[in-house]
Amino acid sequence: MDEFEGLSPLRMPTRNRPLLGLTVLAVEDSRFSCEALRLMCLRSGARIRRADCLRAARRHLQVYRPSVAIVDLGLPDGPGVELIKELDHATPRVEVILGVSGDDDSEARAMAAGADDFLPKPLTNLAAFQHKILSLLPVERQPIGPRIVSHESIDPDPIAYLDDMAHVANLLDGQNDGAILDYASQFLSGVARSAKDAPLADAASELARCRKGNGAVKAHLTVVTNLIHQRLSKRLAI
C-alpha cells in the first residue's frame, strides 16, 4: 500500500484546487494508471492513497473512510465490482464511488454494481476528472464561485510504465497457470493502451483471445514476453 500526500494544509475547496479537502482511495494495480490519478489529485488539491488489490483496499477501509473511491475493475485478487458492491452497501457510504477500466463493457458492469459513475482509461483529462467528481458531490463540498477549468493533459512518468512491465515479467516468469495468464493479458492490454503502446496492447489482446478460444497460447505468450523485455531493456539503458 502506498500513500501520496496532498501539498496544501487547507481544507476548503478553492477556484484552482476544487477537490481540496477530499481524500481519494485509488484501488488500482497499475503504477502507470495510479501515477495519472496521483497527478490529477495533486493538481486538484485532493489527497490520495493507493491500494493495489482488493485485500489492501479492505485493510485501508478498516482504518479510514475516503471521500472518493476509484476502483479498477480488473484486480489481481478478484474483480473490482465486488468492492464497488461492498462500498455501495456500506454504512456510512463513501460519498463518491467511481469504476475505472479500459475495457469496452466495464462501464455497464460498474454501474450495475453500484458505482456512481465511471472513468474510462486512459486517464489524461484533468478537467474531465475534476468535473466527474464535483458533479457527484453535495453542494456544500463544491467550490464557492466560478471555478478555473484546466485544460491540462496528464502525462504519467514513463518509469511508472516500466514498473508495470517489470511486475508482469515477474508474474509470467516460468508460469503456465491459466488464471495468471488471464490476469496478465488483461492487465497488459489496459496499461499498454493507456501508454499508447499499440504493439503490446494488440499482442496482449491477442493472447487473451487465444486463452478464450484455445488458440496458440504459447506462441502468443512468447510474443508478449519478448515485447515486455524489449521495453525493460530501456530501463537498463536509463
From TrEMBL:
GO BP, sorted A to Z: phosphorelay signal transduction system
Gene3D superfamilies referenced in this protein's UniProt entry, alphabetically: 3.40.50.2300
Claim: Zinc is one of the keywords in the record: no
Keywords: Phosphoprotein
SMART domains referenced in this protein's UniProt entry, alphabetically: REC
Stored SUPFAM superfamilies: CheY-like (SSF52172)
Residue numbers carrying 4-aspartylphosphate: D72
Boundaries of every Response regulatory domain copy: 23-136
Protein name: KDP operon transcriptional regulatory protein KdpE
Species: Roseovarius litorisediminis
